[in-house]
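Late entry, written up from scratch paper. The run itself happened at the end of the previous shift, but nothing got recorded in the book at the time, so transcribing now.
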Amino acid sequence: MEFGERLKQARQAQHLTQATVAQALNVTRQTISSWETGHSYPDIDSLIRLSDYYHLSLDTLIKEDAGVTETLRKPEVLRRIRPITQLLLVINVCFIVAILFTQHLLIAKITLDVMGLLNLLAITRLREFTDAISDDSSISRWQRCRRWAYLITLLLTLMTIISWLTLAGPLANNLTILCGALWLAILLAEFSTRHDHRTTKKRNAD
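Output as recorded:
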């Protein structure tokens, strides 16, 4: 028996309506309906409240249901991945700093460029994986980091202008390339976010 069917049977056995259960659990009636039809699954806190409310053990509620088990595992997986992503970002920053100060050593610069690109590829693939299992949208993620992205890019742009004014040729060239890449990344993020926002609005309208 599926998880949703167990919930429905437990509710009907106690002669309760979806509205009554929703009010007791402080959720909407549509949420209860979605759980019972298997369109979505409750989080761990809601599961505990359901278990107490229906006087059923958690093991009885989620027994042999892969969907709800997978839903419960997602936060733990994301929690374990987050420090890895942060570490890779720190390493990338170190690569950028090292590249800026080794422009006179061609072999060292090429080596750092390759290592930085490989690290960036690892971050991208890791982000794709977290996007696949996370309910967090690209819109909300960009809104959270947007201010910092613009601030850092503006500071680097200011450093680039100062470098050109002080005739620091090689450093200014590297900073110019870096700033160009950052502004391009911001434009792509803005375009992607606007596209996702329009797609979401259209889907909700339908």
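The chain has three domains: 3-64, 73-135, 137-206.
(Scratch paper discarded after transcription.)
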